[in-house]
Amino acid sequence: MRTTPIHVIGGGLAGTEAAWQIAQAGLPVTLWEMRPNTPTPAHHTGELAELVCSNSFGARAVDRATGLLHQELRELGSLVIRVADEHAVPAGGALAVDRVHFSRAVTDMIARHPLITLRREEVREIPPGVVVFATGPLTSPALAARLQQLTGQDYLSFFDAASPIILGESINREIAFLASRYDKGEAAYLNCPMNQAEYERFWEALVTAEQAPLKDFEQEEKKFFEACLPVEELARRGKDTLRFGPLKPVGLRDPRRPQERAYAIVQLRPEDREGRLWNLVGFQTNLRWGEQQRVFRLIPGLEQAEFVRYGVMHRNTFLNAPKILQATLQFRDYPHLFAAGQLTGTEGYAAAVAGGWLAGTNAARWVRGWPLLTLPPTTMMGALFHFISTASPAHFQPMPPNFGILPPLDPPVKPKTARYQAYSQRALADLTAWRQGTTVVTCS
């Protein structure tokens, strides 16, 4: 039995998954998390695996990129996805969780594992021995500086934004109605319809509202990641941009007024099982808090909205992975070091969990002297880590799970729905075959 623990730095989705996989392999691990002693601009609690943006892990269906990634992780024994399934809340076709119960459950399981030591301290120097960096988009300045010295590579930064959360009882249910788009799945979303005059008034207020200063995150050129673009920035691209984006009314009808067709619709997704808290879907924002109240209360049904959490903007920092990392998530020049999560240049909760699984599994294999794993490129996990390790370093940007990074089907399949199903079937079949020929579980 190895007595020197493997160090995992960061107690988010990637870090908790990595620590769990190492411990399940029979090796001691020290998990470092600086919160709550050292706060971040985005987190609100000291719980592990806190979800700071949406409470949704993405689509459930396996013929969707995130849903396929969920299923791959289930078959590989992911802790985080198992807990997410146990604490799911209604969200139509999405895997959304009660964020409080989810984080508490992950924290409890990590704290109770006999081989995991949880240390609530900020790591300012790189520990000796085998290390998994899972510090996420808010890596502390001190550790970021050490990583930069180690790698000799510049970091790339963009700004990320989170949506407001509203108290459910403050929503006017005489206006808002429950429905999912095209009636797919349960009626899980609250929908606030707008006519043209209401929409134009809202749009004008949104594009002229005052934004919060970026403070510590100021830089000469702000770069927004398209998948989490602040709603005010999206609105500035044109008066109808929101109506064809997060506010599109297509496939949504108020069952009480089936003949009426909305000009635009704002959707809210439940944040907890009881439906007490609701997230404004697609409303990531950097508006001042007072402006958020003023502007978002122009939405029909939200005139008296009580904000449980305002939207915030925070810095997101990531490695130039093609220069630094292999597809095993091992550092090219420092084979005893691994990285996982958004620090590697993947995007989204499920991708962070996948990175934690692979980095933790490979850190344990490195200690045992076993060959490191890469997953088949036809799987979503394999394709994602192949992409970030082989993309052009000069233009590298974070990549979310998507079918575009998978190898083409031979022969090609049309239409799109059939193609996505074929991708998923191939991925899961290849994952099963890979598992049968690979020692994945390394418990001693």
Written description of the protein model:
This protein is of the alpha/beta class. It folds into 2 domains: 6-155 and 319-436, FAD/NAD(P)-binding domain (3-Layer(bba) Sandwich), CATH 3.50.50.60; 165-314, Elongation Factor Tu (Ef-tu), domain 3, CATH 2.40.30. It has 12 helices and 16 strands. α1 runs parallel beside α10 (349-368) and α2 (65-75) packs parallel to α12 (416-436). The chain is globular, with a radius of gyration of 22 Å. 48% of the residues are buried. The model is unreliable at 216-221 (pLDDT under 50).
The CATH H-level superfamily of the largest domain is FAD/NAD(P)-binding domain
Major β-sheet strand ordering: 10-11-12-13-9-14
What is the CATH C-level name of the largest domain?
A: Alpha Beta
Structural class: alpha/beta
Whole-number count of domains:
2
Mean pLDDT score, rounded? 90
The fraction of residues in strands falls at 5-15%
Number of helices: 12
